[in-house]
Amino acid sequence: MSTALLLAEAQPDTRGFLERHLTSDGFRVVGDGARPDLVLLGDTKALDACRARHGDVPVIVLGEPESDSVDRVRALDRGCDDFLAKPFDYQELLARIRAVLRRTTPAAHETLQAGPITADLATRCVTVDGISVALAGKEYELLLRLMKDPTRVFTKEQLLREVWDFRSLGRTRTLDSHASRLRRKLAAAGQGAFVINVWGVGYRLLDG
């Protein structure tokens, strides 16, 4: 079955353009009542409502023309998977959609295990000691990166590049805010220290 995309875009011209071209490229554009595989969201302010309605489905925000790097970082801080300001090049948007889908649609029933934490890569289901933990998109991607080598200390620069695809790092609280939320959610489901901050360096998932 083709990938289901939800166009949560208020501007009729942009919506019509996207629906026409995405359909031609093999995607299935669905209504708000369906379960989408990815959401194109036209307003960062609607991100929380989108998450509440559709769970941890991947979200790409289509920002306003006056959007700048601060708007992009704030959108990523709030849990979107990518951000592209209007007017955008359709081929770039298409490439970003496919990149997000590659990151979030792994092979069926492959799992990762790190201590008491299990991640089912097909369903994006995370459990700690068998207790389910609901994670937003970037929290989940951060967890997967840390689970690949759970006692290794990853630098902040590594994580920002590999999880958020940041090229120019600057000053951002994106990683710290996501790590804090991820730590609280994992700790609420099981005993132990998770997402450990190694001061001045970065993060590791578990104690060595």
Keywords:
208 residues; alpha/beta; Rossmann fold; Arc Repressor Mutant, subunit A; 2 domains; five-stranded parallel β-sheet; four-stranded antiparallel β-sheet; 12 strands; 39% helix; 21% strand
Protein described:
The chain is α/β, with parallel strands linked by helices and 208 residues long. Helices cover 39% and strands 21% of the residues. The chain has 7 helices and 12 strands. A 5-stranded parallel β-sheet has the order 2-1-3-4-5, with helices on both faces. Strand 8 (125-128) and strand 9 form a beta hairpin. The termini are far apart. The mean pLDDT is 88.
Mean model confidence by pLDDT:
88
In helices, the fraction of residues equals 25-40%
What distance separates the N and C termini? 43 Å
Q: Major sheet, described briefly?
A: 5 strands, parallel
Please sum up the structure shown.
The protein contains seven helices and twelve strands. It has 208 residues and is α/β, with parallel strands linked by helices.
SSE map:
Blueprint: E1 4-8, H1 12-24, E2 28-30, E3 38-41, H2 47-54, E4 59-63, H3 69-77, E5 82-85, H4 90-104, E6 111-114, E7 117-120, E8 125-128, E9 131-133, H5 137-147, E10 154-155, H6 156-164, H7 174-189, E11 196-198, E12 202-204
